[in-house]
């Protein structure tokens, strides 16, 4: 993603010309600059935001890597459709439109508003065998791209639902970045120390099934449908120059995949919050991400991205509503 140096200068001058000491709005100024460059204007549009939640099951969940049973994925999809999840509550509070995609929940959900692109009844158990076929990886990326490119919001967020997906993400990060596995494995939905130790044993077995992998091979070996589809959606949205609000550990793993495949799209990505899932720290460092918020969240669904949406609105308001020194007749610095 290339930016015209003249635009860069113009944006910087517009931000510094607002009636405030230079740099005094801190990260909001950085966000404003990012949004302006992405949209090619000093008058950016952050009028609306859409959240897409991708849901799917993980065969690995049957091996005992989560504090909750697999059935919760489907039950939470129904909860999203009924408007009762945390993501719905936050989206409702902030005027964000929500849509939900079944990318491969074990048991299909019948609901008129659910978007369905099922890649199977959940992935296979990656401790024993490849999670998904290379064809399913390609399908998930293509479908995700289409979802991301075609939804006309200037700002987009992505959420996940898939019991066992913190385990899948630990394996993906380990295989894609080469970081050690143990620090990437955490409590997820709330495993105790013994549960985390059991999760690590299962993930070591899964990791030892394969050697060094290319990123696309890692996706096929470890899945999951919703993570790969989310990565595709991030690529599709960023390519259309939509601002991509990245949620916590799961969405950051999808961002890792997206940016491994398309590194030039990095200027479209905003890392919204520092998930309390321990592996997120190393992942954020790898991505050179400095998350905007640190609220001890560890939920997913896009909740941390939704909380950052008002900050994006503030950045746009700074550009569109604030007077310049010249407009307001305010004296500049000595
Ligand atoms: C009721 C409930 C609602 C959730 N919403 C998101 N997650 C989150 O928890 C799961 C990942 O954690 P693990 O890898 O430990 O299974 C994902 O589904 C994620 O979206 C939830 C989990 C539960 C139980
Ligand atoms: O940060 C996340 O995305 C997360 C953390 C724990 C469980 N589910 C999701």
From TrEMBL:
A GO molecular-function descriptor: nicotinate-nucleotide-dimethylbenzimidazole phosphoribosyltransferase activity
Domain of life of the source: Bacteria
Pathway annotation: Nucleoside biosynthesis; alpha-ribazole biosynthesis; alpha-ribazole from 5,6-dimethylbenzimidazole: step 1/2
Catalytic reaction list: 5,6-dimethylbenzimidazole + nicotinate beta-D-ribonucleotide = alpha-ribazole 5'-phosphate + nicotinate + H(+)
EC number: 2.4.2.21
Enzyme class: transferase
Pfam family, one: DBI_PRT
Family from the record: Belongs to the CobT family.
Function: Catalyzes the synthesis of alpha-ribazole-5'-phosphate from nicotinate mononucleotide (NAMN) and 5,6-dimethylbenzimidazole (DMB).
Name this protein carries in UniProt: Nicotinate-nucleotide--dimethylbenzimidazole phosphoribosyltransferase
Organism expressing this protein natively: Algicella marina
